[in-house]
Design goal:
The complex is a heterodimer of chains A (306) and B (296). Chain A has 306 residues and is mostly helical. Chain A is built from 15 helices and no strands. The chains are: A mainly alpha (306), B mainly alpha (296).
Chain lengths: 306, 296
Amino acid sequence: MHQPLFSQPRASQPLVTQSRVSHVLAAAAPAAAESGADRGGQGLRFGVLVLLAALSVLPILVMLSTSLKTQRQILGGDFSFFVMPTFDNYRGVLEGRFLGYLGNSVIVSISATLLTLIFGTMCAYAISRFRFAGRSPIAIGTLLLRTVPPAVLAIPAYFILTPLHLDGLTGLVISYVALNLPFTIWLLYGFIEQVPTELEEAATVDGCGPYRLFFTLILPLLKPGLAAAAIFTFRIGWNELVLASILTNRTSRTLPYGVYLFITDVGIDWGQLMAAGMLVALPPLIFTFIAARQIITGLTAGAVKG
Amino acid sequence: MLGRWGFDRRLAPYVFAAPAVLIMAVGLFYPVVEAVRLSLYEVRLGEPPTPQAFRGLSILAEALADSSVRTSMAVTLQFSVLVVAVEMVLGVALALALEKPLRGMRAFRTLFVLPMMIAPICVGLIWRYMFDVNVGPINSWLAMFHVKPAWLADPSLAFFTLCVTDIWQFTPFVFILALAGLQGIDQSAVEAAKIDGASVLQTIRYIKIPLLAPILMITILMRLIDALRGLEVVYAMTNGGPGLSTELFSLHIYKSAFVTQRMGHSAALSVCLLVVTTALSAALLMWSNPMRRKGG
């Protein structure tokens, strides 16, 4: 029997079931007085939730509203959320080099995400389904490399990639794929372990080779895991600053550093800065609304397991 | 036919694992080794290390004796311990308060995740604006009390604002993990305690917290690792200043490499950071990733 080297993250499913169970328990609580008190408590708890949500969202709304103000509205008088929106700041931002940075960011994040998903799933599959020489070193090495800080990579990456002319976007993609692979492999391993092996055995008996098996049978079954991994990988590629500021030059610069460049010694154009910030913040925010379930699964996968 | 399948079967794991292993070797493992090597040389930006520049461990010793390094270590330690402690207490308290199923919880969780998902550089900028002395909303709201703190110009206030920012960003993370943990607790123990007449606080103290302990440990470790290695937020917010009051260790490494261009010095410090985070990760692995499956 081979020893699995990764523990299994649990998908959010059990959480849902659990809360359903407690829901039933709560509904079945008989004492009328208690349920009355409960209702009062529920109102209070709901209030706390609303307050927390406001605290989470308010600063982001501040960014949004500032990005829609004129310089005069920002500098003059008290802060207010409500203004006649103007898109001048966005226009100003997009007239500069920003569009080019945006393109670079799209290229880097999307290629890093695709490569990470493909290579990560393949590697996770190998660790999960095959016993081969090198399996343990790969698994343990992956686990240990999971938390290498980008600041540690920055200096050597500069020395390694620059002489090879791999700085710029290619170098960034390599670095981001490498940084993301450990987490992705580990996350997807958990999902692959949940796929019953009987499926593969049946396909093998029917004469399906290992590669076709993987790409046509396994990969489609891993969609939730792939979604979670994709969001986290995309997020690194889109948000990362340190490596991006070192490995790129004027033409290959990505968005986060482009935003940073709006801060000058002369004085900050808050309107444009916030508009640029919004443009960077927006894609991850949209993904969060689309795939909150997967994100929370990914976040909790490391800590909460059955 | 069968023979070909057998060959495929033996070769397949290597084909599957090779691309990932290759990229991790080139993009992670080799750079880490190179960081260790560079930490032994006195090198400047743009020039490769030469044998003459070999200085061995003296660079590390020198770096550790540097007062700005020690200040930055102290700042980082204070920052990490403070924010992780506050986030844990707040996050767990909120999870305990909001443990029972509430309508719309899923929607709220989505909102809580937002601060974590946007780029750290944006987080830094947002809070730099929030705390701006003249145009920032916080001082605008404080105007009714006739105070106007220069948040980012005063060293202790700047440190405070950095902590507030991190707490804003990551308390939801602790909350979500603690909540997931609480909802995974076997309710029969809690029910039994209730029947035995335990008060709410006793149930929390003697039943829920002990059952949550493993998850809380992992959360603490994950947060510590992040707090130790983060730099983007502070880079955008204060860039380490005023003075060295918010110069986190990662930022110090970055600045000494690419601003003052002392690569060897910087690499030596980055190896220190790596040792600390690797030790913490190893602890994390022992808690959350035992080399066996549950029950196996």
